[in-house]
Amino acid sequence: MKKKLFLAYSSTFLFLLISVWLGLSIGSVDIPFSALWDKEANPRAYSILWNIRMPRVVLAGLVGASLAIAGAAFQGLLRNPLADPYTIGVSSGASVGAISTIFFGVSIPMLGSYTLAMFGILGAFITLIFVLSFARLVDKTLKMETLILTGVIFSAFLSSCISLLTALSHEELKAVVNWLLGSVAMRGWSYVYVLIPFLIIGSLILWFNRRELNVMMYGDERATSLGVNVVRRKYAVLIGGSVLTGAAVSVSGTIGFVGLVVPHITRLVWGTDHRHLLPLSFLKGATLLIICDLVSRTIVAPQELPIGVITAFIGAPVFAYIFFKQRRKK
């Protein structure tokens, strides 16, 4: 077991380091490795590396990590491999919260640069409450089909709200459209600083509930019989996942399927124990989005694709495979 865990963490760290190295070194300008520390040797390369590529790679990694660990927690809590922030409508809720902030020019002095992230988190949490409440109203057992269809319904409604706000935008149109495309380009260190505290808070909430997630996978009654306060733990996980999703969406736009693909593959390869599933998903999510961002800015260079296009190309077939596999079991 120890050998398997060592292999899991060492290989995951190795892939993450390789993805970071590729993300920093590949681009329209060749960056020598020495530019990491030697400003005098090549000031232009040093400036590109630390002011453009490094914050972009770091932000892509943090967004991917946030979405992946949130997806792993949602899947464990709902006992559903198709549950992720995108498919159950939480990402759409965060998008509405963030776009409403841009559209109405909301700025709360006390929150400052964190206003956008806070409204994104609020939109994600409210949407999640509505999705789960409606799904339970339709089907108290919260079957997979019910949850997914409810997520589709709410996503469609929220997408129409986004379209309405976009259509009504005038001066804010450029900012709204740029945000909708889903990207980590030209965000800079300020977006990294906005995301980091929410990433720490959300991840710690989920980490402190890792053992309870393991127990709740076997059902609420068994978890209660083993001394778990199911209601309190569920709300904790939902809040943690919503914080991570809302903050990630608010700084990068809607990027789908990361929270679906990464936890599912991690679970298949390394097992279902959330003590390791959560950190491994965190690291693999960071790796995946750094690679997707690299592909999005190089595949049709000098033009750049929205990063959400690349994740959708990967995620949609995986989504179809999981759905097909689940249906074949019945």
TrEMBL record:
Keyword Transmembrane helix: yes
InterPro entries documented for this protein: ABC_BtuC-like (IPR037294), ABC_transptr_permease_BtuC (IPR000522)
Gene3D superfamilies: ABC transporter involved in vitamin B12 uptake, BtuC (1.10.3470.10)
Keyword hit for Transmembrane: yes
Compartments, as annotated in UniProt: Cell membrane
Annotated CDD domains: TM_ABC_iron-siderophores_like (cd06550)
Membrane topology (UniProt): Multi-pass membrane protein
Stretches that traverse the bilayer: 12-37, 57-74, 86-108, 114-135, 147-168, 188-208, 235-262, 305-324
Gene Ontology cellular component list: plasma membrane
Name listed for the protein in its UniProt record: Iron ABC transporter permease
One example GO MF annotation: transmembrane transporter activity
Keywords: Cell membrane, Membrane, Transmembrane, Transmembrane helix, Transport
Domain of life: Bacteria
Pfam families listed in its UniProt record: FecCD (PF01032)
Entry's Gene Ontology BP terms: siderophore-iron import into cell
Chief location: membrane
Family of this protein: Belongs to the binding-protein-dependent transport system permease family. FecCD subfamily.
